[in-house]
Amino acid sequence: MEWIAWLKSCVVPALHWLEAHPGTASWLEAVGSIAAILFVGLFALLQARRATSHEDLDRIRRAQGLALVLVPVLRGFIPKIEVAIIRESKLEPPDEVLHLLDQLYVLGVAGGFVLQMVATLQAHQRAEEPRNDDDGSARSSYNSMANQRLADALRYCEDAIDALAKLTRVRTV
Predict the structure, then answer these.
(1) Quick check: is 173 in a domain?
(2) In this structure, which long-range contacts are made by residues 89-92, counting pairs with CB atoms below 8 Å and at least 24 apart in sequence?
(3) 59-96 pLDDT, tens per residue?
(4) Average per-residue pLDDT in the chain?
(5) Overall pTM > 0.90
(6) Is 118 inside a domain boundary?
(7) How many domains does the chain have?
(8) Range of 22's domain?
């Protein structure tokens, strides 16, 4: 109870002084109001930062989960691309990737590589083989373009695997 007496001994003289100087109470009220407004503003800012931090963390974790699904699929797809290059054949993108196309935006650059690979493979599928010509130049040109498209798809696939592997190593606490 001594602390109450000590507090009373400090507050009572301050209140008497404020009553003796009528303009001081108005100034104290104004300063207190400004301090309260600043406090509420800072509190709201800290809450917004915390919410943004949680959203970023959730996005990173969602991306990591997606990356853990895609890395084995893409690693298993590399030999198929290599075989298609050797045999000069057409190749469809993996179904697992096609089912996740609407979620790839979460992956950032890695998702962009996956999309580039899918687009390149789809362009390769739509390319029509030339009709037979006398000197074979059209067929040679087609084969060259097909090889280039498949090589690009292979490069995009490898780049996607590298970017996804980096994403899975990001630490989240």
Answers:
(1) no
(2) 90/124, 90/125, 91/121, 91/124, 91/125, 91/150, 91/153, 92/121, 92/125
(3) 888 888 899 999 999 999 999 999 999 988 888 999 99
(4) 86
(5) no
(6) yes
(7) 1
(8) 2-168
